[in-house]
Amino acid sequence: MDSFVRIWKSYTTHIFLYFKSNMADYQGYIILFITWLVSTIVVRAILSRKQNKTNRPPSPQALPIIGHLHLLAPIPHQALHKLSTRYGPIMHLFLGSVPCVIASTPEAAKEFLKTHETSFSNRPQSSAVDFLTYGSQDFSFAPYGPYWKFMKKICMSELLGGHTLNQLLPVRRQETLKFLRLLLQKEKAGEAIDVGGELLRLSNNVVSRMIMSQTCSEDDSEAEEVRKLVQDTVLLTGKFNASDFIWFLRNWDLQGFRKRLKEIRDRFDTMMERAIEEHQEERKKIKEEGSGGEGQIKDLLDVLLDIHEHENSDIKLTKENIKAFILDIFMAGTDTAALTTEWTLAELINHPHVMERARQEIDAVIGNGRIVEESDLVNLPYLQAVVKETLRIHPTGPLIVRESSESCTIWGYDIPPKTQLFVNVWAIGRDPNHWEKPLEFRPERFLGEEGNGKGQLDVRGQHFHMIPFGSGRRGCPGTSLALQFVQTNLAAMIQCFEWKVKEGNETVDMEEKPGLTLSRAHPLICVPVPRLNPFPPM
Ligand code: HEM
């Protein structure tokens, strides 16, 4: 078999060389191309027949070249859910030439993410992410190993751990108040607001200030620039790129991705260079004054620059590592939290009795003399249940994506190394074997009032019935920040305003659109009507 593959490879190389030197001979080119394609398909079919002798999970019939790609339209997590009802909780697919395994129930997810966690602690690379992160120099896509562990430690001790989150509470509070003020202004001007757009602005400002102090949010044009960058990046990385899946297109860029990626990375690079320069100037000033910067809270960029400049650091951080890490946090942390808040408000508008109960709880605990704060959240169990119910039905990371680093056997099925894993979080939250009337929005199911054992269910990856933040060592490090952000801002929005949708519409539609994160197909446009003025005259 090996010598057969060697001969075919040399044949392929010769055809390409011939093609290169005879570009003008189109007819010859077409004949040669078809010969090459057919021979290649035959060789791959022979090889895959050999591979099929291993015990792979059930799989639908694949097409040549594209495998099962055509079955994922229009929205991959929905299409995979439908397929799993036919082929079972563990399925095998080929996306183009890439082998994949799909886990669609809590039991299957636990097998991959807990029992076989060590084999599935890597993430697959894509050409877009590789390019944007300066050749995969980031954290979210770094293979599990010493570099990832080092960055995870920094992430938890300097950005997303309890101590830093407490220190940065005033930043989040200021941004929430700024957001509420903006809602009031819009209402006074008689303007409707795009709820998702404004929430994205808010989450972006919070994350920018945590990472780089004021740098990105000081003036509106800079904040706008970061927001646009995050949006463009999420959009482009969520698009299907044929060269990631169709092996003979690997080095071709038929969809013109590279140009757009380069434009985004150049914009990001300019912004980061400017931020680094400003930070370095400030650090120099502090050194010269000899004040040591006492009393100042370091932002993440300062911490990363400390490590970059430290001669004896365990791991040497390059400037590219720093930039790529910051891009990761923007990408993972801003869109997801804003979208979750938007989906929750949409559900509340469609379920007025739930909105009323949440509001009564807030009024009873906080009264109408002040605005709800993060420290009130422990006393708002119904509000917490409302957010959990949203994360169950609308998980903003609908598919957890990992890759196997070694071969393993799960439920008797052979999973080879370099197999992509998709855990369908969206399907798990709607599994009728675990959730009574799964499509109904009923926060009460999390209050222990129904005797269903879901009262104590937490969302941090211990209970596989609901894993909106993933699970295990590669689970989401931003869970605490995300929950604080969503719950506090949602509570303030329903404490201070009634939410009216366009005249004539009592409800809002809940259609999804395709993408890396779970977005609404139609923006949520509302008029906020004040019910409590959060800024009474002094
Ligand atoms: C509601 C909001 C959020 C949701 C639903 C969410 C969900 C997720 C999910 C499903 C994963 C993959 C987990 C896995 O593979 O097991 C993840 C990873 C990650 N999230 Fe979040 N996330 C949210 C907010 C945040 C925030 C606010 C940040 C930071 C500011 C953040 C930073 C990250 C990072 C850095 C990773 C990659 C971790 C790694 O590869 O080790 N996320 N998130």
UniProtKB/TrEMBL annotation:
The keyword Kinase does not apply. Heme binds at C476. One of its GO terms (molecular function) is oxidoreductase activity, acting on paired donors, with incorporation or reduction of molecular oxygen. Keywords: Heme, Iron, Membrane, Metal-binding, Monooxygenase, Oxidoreductase, Transmembrane, Transmembrane helix. Pfam families: p450. One of its GO terms (cellular component) is membrane. PANTHER family: CYTOCHROME P450, CYTOCHROME P450 93A3-LIKE. Belongs to the cytochrome P450 family. This is Uncharacterized protein. It comes from Psophocarpus tetragonolobus.
